[in-house]
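tool=predict chain=A
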Amino acid sequence: MVSYSEIIEKPIDIVWEHFIYKVDYPQYFVPGVSNVLIKEKNESFTVREMDITSPEGVTHRVIEKITYAPYHVIFNIIDHPLYRGHVDNFAEKISDTQTKITFCLNWIDKKTGDSFNNESIAKHAVLKTIDYILKAKLTNL
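tool=predict ok
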């Protein structure tokens, strides 16, 4: 597992709105995402399919089942050519105006059984999420 955290100068309810928005629109929050398709959505979960292009230029099709409860979103991998596991997104209230965002990548390499340990991927995703939240004009997406 690898994780990364940052504090953002936004209240937790604003961060949470963006976490929920991210379920349907990950391309604004996750580096390299394109071709997003929501395959199923109900009150309990969302099944999402999308392409992710690595920094090296390799694109993989990924299918995830996403569940969420305040202030935790879980992205469970259903199908990925390289990894199995899940990603956790946490929002933690620090104060009325500050929220700690933590992303934990709990991925296991399918071939080797090794845990994913590239912190820069988690860091980049957190920073891109913060950048999007800070630039967003609306609080009610």
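The helical segments are 12-24, 119-135. The mean pLDDT is 93.
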